[in-house]
User: Which sequence fits this backbone?
């Protein structure tokens, strides 16, 4: 997680004289969810100086000249328009109503102008789509809600989307994941502006954790078969459906290409353009997902699970399972079963095991390398939703650039420096 704006000083711009960081403009649009919209209003709009929290000045701005109707049919009245953004040193876009719609051009112009004049621009959850539409995320790391991360990466390929992060601080442009992560990012902004004591006091007032990280959510990751909605109308959808129904069989990407009546190269290109993922990476992730379900719901041995998920050997299963879920199959099953009898009890955190680069013999046993560039996280049977996506670029021995710049959770800080490793900046290839 990129949490220290000082780590990217070159991203900062000189703030215009008329702008002040403690003046926060929150940009609201019609159709936006009320919960996400209320987060910056609560953090920056309430005077809590009695609790040791420095005061911000809040400007709630309408991003368009229409009635601002939000979830539940509520209608809001913003006291300011886009012109008020010219005074703000921090501009927050808490959400956007639909990832399929283009934001109003006037709002995008106001965001670009604010950024050019040194304002800090913040996108919470789907607000990242507004920042991306304004061109403010080009060439930058960013995150958004896990469910919409594939769409963001596909629509804006120059954005380095990492849906595993709670938030990403790239200096003067910051983005957060889903709803609760918006609180984490706002607390981070207070911590950056006024120090840990002020942020901790605010967290106590809001009755939320003082500082969460992605590791705090646990690494019992539940992957999903989900793909972008637009693939449903594509001829490749039939091939994808066949692959999901035959994961227990040993087949490769050439088999899928043949079923689609395409050459391997054409199939790779078409599959990646639709899903944002290479077919080999996607296939491995689906096999790991199937193994995860069998470990949860059956008494098959790990060797039997490997065979029923189409892996060539148990070694292949163990290698890919550990890379995606941070634990061995046996450890995952033990942790899952340990929490099952305790209804309502907190789930144990499955700490990631260190993943060392496999030796040559092990790499040969794996047969293929790489994992899904993005696998959306979702509920997995027990009702506890967990946001996750895993990524690793390219095949073993042949890394490829990817919009989801890969790195394992424990590698989020560069060794010895304490500085975040941004997408595309891994110190060494993994597995």
Assistant:
């Amino acid at each position: 997680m990129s949490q220290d704006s000082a780590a990217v000083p070159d991203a900062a711009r000189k703030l215009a004289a008329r702008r002040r960081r403690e003046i926060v403009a929150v940009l609201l649009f019609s159709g936006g969810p009320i919960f996400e919209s209320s987060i910056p209003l609560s953090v920056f709009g309430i005077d809590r100086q009695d609790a040791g929290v420095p005061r911000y000045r809040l400007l709630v701005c309408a991003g368009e000249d229409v009635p601002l109707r939000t979830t539940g049919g509520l209608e809001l009245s913003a006291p300011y328009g886009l012109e008020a953004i010219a005074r703000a040193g921090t501009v927050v876009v808490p959400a956007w109503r639909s990832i399929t719609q283009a934001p109003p051009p006037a709002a995008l112009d106001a965001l670009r102008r604010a950024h050019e004049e040194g304002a800090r621009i913040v996108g919470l959850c789907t607000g990242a789509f507004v920042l991306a539409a304004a061109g403010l995320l080009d060439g930058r790391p960013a995150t958004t809600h896990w469910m919409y991360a594939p769409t963001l990466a596909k629509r804006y390929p120059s954005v380095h989307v990492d849906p595993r992060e709670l938030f990403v601080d790239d200096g003067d442009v910051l983005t957060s994941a889903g709803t609760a992560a918006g609180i984490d990012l706002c607390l981070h902004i207070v911590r950056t502006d006024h120090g840990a004591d002020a942020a901790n006091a605010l967290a106590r007032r809001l009755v939320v954790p003082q500082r969460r990280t992605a590791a705090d959510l646990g690494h019992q990751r539940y992957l999903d078969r989900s793909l972008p909605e637009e693939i449903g109308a594509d001829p490749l959808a039939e091939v994808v459906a066949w692959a999901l129904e035959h994961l227990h069989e040993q087949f490769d990407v050439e088999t899928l290409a043949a079923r689609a009546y395409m050459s391997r190269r054409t199939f790779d290109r078409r599959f990646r353009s639709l899903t944002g993922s290479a077919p080999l990476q996607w296939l491995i992730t689906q096999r790991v997902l199937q193994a995860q379900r069998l470990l949860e719901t059956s008494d098959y041995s790990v060797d039997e699970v490997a065979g029923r998920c189409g892996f060539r050997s148990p070694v292949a299963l163990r290698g890919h399972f550990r890379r995606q879920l941070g634990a061995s199959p046996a450890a995952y099953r033990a942790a899952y079963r340990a929490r099952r009898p305790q209804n309502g009890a907190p789930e144990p955190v499955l700490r990631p095991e260190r993943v060392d680069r496999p030796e040559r013999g092990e790499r040969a046993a794996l047969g293929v390398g790489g994992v899904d560039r993005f696998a959306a996280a979702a509920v997995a049977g027990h009702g506890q939703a967990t946001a996750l996506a895993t990524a690793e670029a390219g095949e073993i021995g042949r890394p490829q650039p990817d919009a989801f710049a890969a790195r394992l959770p424990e590698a989020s800080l560069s060794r010895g420096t304490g500085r975040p490793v941004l997408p595309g900046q891994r110190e060494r290839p993994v597995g």
In short: Strands lie at 20-28, 57-62, 68-69, 75-76, 88-93, 120-123, 141-142, 160-161, 167-169, 173-176. Residues 3-11, 218-225, 342-431 have pLDDT under 50 and may be disordered. Residues 263 and 378 are 33 Å apart (CA to CA).
